[in-house]
Amino acid sequence: MESVRCNLCGGNDAPVLFRKRDGLKIGGEEFSVAECRRCGLLYLNPRPGPEEIARFYPDHYSWKKDLEGSSSLTRLVRGMEKRYRYHLLAGEVAKVIR
User: Fold this and answer.
1) What is the per-residue pLDDT across 51-98, written as a single tens digit (0 to 9) for each?
2) Is 29 helix (H, G, I), strand (E, B) or coil?
3) Of the four, 8, 27, 35, 83, which is 20 to 30 A from 46 by CA?
4) Three-class DSSP category at 69
């Protein structure tokens, strides 16, 4: 795992809001979601490094490259992805909304 600055503004002041176990049950790690105090971005910190991240993606993970940005299939997949992320984090985000 590597500690990182905010990807949006470069800030380095981001307290942990909550921790969440790997929802896909790939490793069993607990991930920390931090919120940048400068811009409000939520991100993993620390996050898996380049060598570790491959464990979380299958070799055939390439649908984004293969789909046109405006196709109905792309919109469907992105919508499903958004709902899935919301489902995974809904209970945690509700705890930190002010």
Assistant:
1) 888 777 666 655 555 555 566 777 777 777 777 777 667 666 655 554
2) coil
3) 83
4) coil
